[in-house]
Write a structure and sequence with these properties.
Blueprint (H helix, E strand, L loop, with lengths): L2 H14 L11 H8 L3 H14 L2 E3 L5 E3 L4 H25 L2 H17 L4 H22 L2 H18 L6 H19 L3 H25 L1
Helix pairs in contact: 1-3, 2-3, 4-6, 4-7, 4-8, 4-9, 5-6, 5-8, 8-9
Organism: Paenarthrobacter nicotinovorans
Keywords: DNA-binding, Transcription, Transcription regulation
InterPro entries: GntR_C, TF_FadR/GntR_C, Tscrpt_reg_HTH_GntR, WH-like_DNA-bd_sf, WH_DNA-bd_sf
Length: about 210
């Protein structure tokens, strides 16, 4: 793997996992020493992160991790509603029912598995990622799937605001199960409605968590 790719992946993960918090200045010299690469790969990595919207130039301060505001959360969810509600409908029309029936069964069990231990949470997030990937594949629309993948980069960081709330994770698992079930039974309107419920509850919880923080 190229040094710039290693630097990009390391910095991206640190930003998504909140090890590098909003407003953190990413100085090339400091990051090159921390990551064990030269400044050129770090510069290339920062350019890619800026293109994704995870970092931004801040005048004489150099590059900083972008902030997450209530306005930005609202904007992300406006786009998320546009894309994901339509995608759920298309998946219900075009997807393989058996794939989503299996995901539904796994998601039904997820709330009972989610506790305070990190391994279980990582398994849950991996399961949700599999649902996302199944929807991406089912819609047969490369442009929409690419747009949703780009959006999820920012949602992953926003989601960390509420990552410690076990009750919300358990409720979200049930909501994802409802989405998978609606797609499995090939009911576009039910899939849309289940997605809308999930997005509404997620947004309400995230904004409350952001305000509390």
């Amino acid at each position: 793997m190229r040094a710039s790719d290693r630097a990009y992946r390391a910095l991206r993960e640190d930003i998504l996992e909140w090890r590098l918090r909003p407003g953190t200045v990413l100085a090339e010299v400091e990051q090159s020493e921390r990551l064990g690469v030269s400044r050129t790969p770090v510069r290339e990595a920062l350019g890619r992160l800026t293109a994704e919207g995870l970092t931004t130039a801040a005048g004489g301060r150099g590059v900083v991790v972008t902030d997450i505001s209530l306005d930005s959360i609202d904007e992300l969810f406006e786009l998320r509603e546009t894309l994901e509600v339509r995608a759920a409908s298309l998946a219900a029309q075009r997807g393989e029912p058996g794939v989503f029936a299996e995901l539904h069964a796994e998601l039904l069990l997820a709330p009972t598995l989610l506790g305070d231990d990190d391994p279980a949470r990582h398994e849950y997030y991996a399961l949700v990622s599999r649902l996302d990937e199944a929807i991406d594949a089912a819609i047969s629309n490369v442009y929409m799937a690419n747009a949703m993948r780009s959006l999820r980069v920012h949602l992953a960081r926003v989601r960390r605001l509420a990552a410690d709330d076990t009750a919300r994770l358990q409720a979200a698992a049930a909501e994802h199960a409802a989405i998978a079930e609606a797609i499995a039974v090939a009911n576009p309107r039910l899939a849309e409605a289940a997605t809308m419920v999930h997005l509404h509850r997620s947004l309400t919880h995230l904004k409350a968590a952001h305000s509390a923080g």
